[in-house]
């Protein structure tokens, strides 16, 4: 399976993501780790490796110059071969366990084949070490900032209309934008609804999706899930008046979100397909290759 995207820029799908690796500063400063400390008798050689601060927005890290050099060489070879910088597409899947996918032993074995994901994995690099929060919002924010939740401030999923914590932070899409990429987020956001934390204000050039999570748009309207609310005109009206976005929205960098449609249970049925269709068209819209 091969994916091809047009030149030099980026489409990021936050239906989905990759961990952020900040560029090294010109002169990294040594962190507070003690140098020359013998450590414990342990086979892990990194226990006594000093950490360095490579960017203001990052915690001190253990550097691997040889791996960094190899990565830069591969990227340079790819750009020389294709004449463009590589595009990056990030798929972020909620509630998918480590063993749900076929290449980790799941897939067919657990009754849900994942042939497309397995094909991508077989042609690429499978990362075997990761860090994740037990809920989606802190994990999403960590992916976009490279920070632990205690630092980016989103410790749990925001509730109806609750603000987020990404404002003022350095984000992956902003770093890519600064390198000439066009960045896009599609789908569920759920990292705060205040204007400063919305995707178009934290690095994305284009956003199509909703600000919260699907349940917040449908559960109070569903007579099977919440009949005491859905069948009560007073309670339904109360929720409608709460200050949170109830729409499928679109926004461009620095702009206001524009409502496309009210997200009803019926509208939700094919919303994923609507978003996918929009995302596929985005790289070449208006005749411009992105």
Automatic annotation (TrEMBL):
InterPro entries: Alkaline_phosphatase_core_sf (IPR017850), Sulfatase (IPR050738), Sulfatase_CS (IPR024607), Sulfatase_N (IPR000917). The modification 3-oxoalanine (Ser) is found at residue 136. Gene3D superfamilies: Alkaline Phosphatase, subunit A. Keywords: Calcium, Hydrolase, Metal-binding, Signal. Residues 86-282 form the Sulfatase N-terminal domain. It is an enzyme of class 3 (hydrolase). GO terms for molecular function: arylsulfatase activity; metal ion binding. Its EC number is 3.1.6.1. Its cofactor is Ca(2+). The keyword Metal-binding applies. The conversion to 3-oxoalanine (also known as C-formylglycine, FGly), of a serine or cysteine residue in prokaryotes and of a cysteine residue in eukaryotes, is critical for catalytic activity. It holds the Pfam family Sulfatase. It comes from the Bacteria. Residues 1-24 form the signal peptide. Belongs to the sulfatase family. This is Arylsulfatase. It comes from Escherichia coli.
